[in-house]
Amino acid sequence: MSHYHTDTKTAYDMAKIVAALSYLTIVGWMLAIILYGFHRSTFARFHLRQSLGLVITAALLSFIPLIGWLLNIAVIFLWFLALYYALTGQKRSVPLLGDFYQRHLDFIC
Length: 109
Prior knowledge:
109 residues; mainly alpha; elongated
């Protein structure tokens, strides 16, 4: 478990806002990516990748009848866990797929 630290409290708070906002619907993610352009941080980039990965996973699972829909319950749990990590300033991957998201969604830089 690692906590994110910056030089200033304002930069830290802005990074947390961008990270948390990225988990609030796809509109929140798009707003977070715009804010990220003005306030770049490794913490915000990390959570932008995690949240986009969860959205893509949930979208793909919803095409699979019954089993995929049931697995989306696990994705919702992971989404709440990731939002908690963002709000508390933790840079932790979601279990199972978090490291995969970090490696393969590297276009968010």
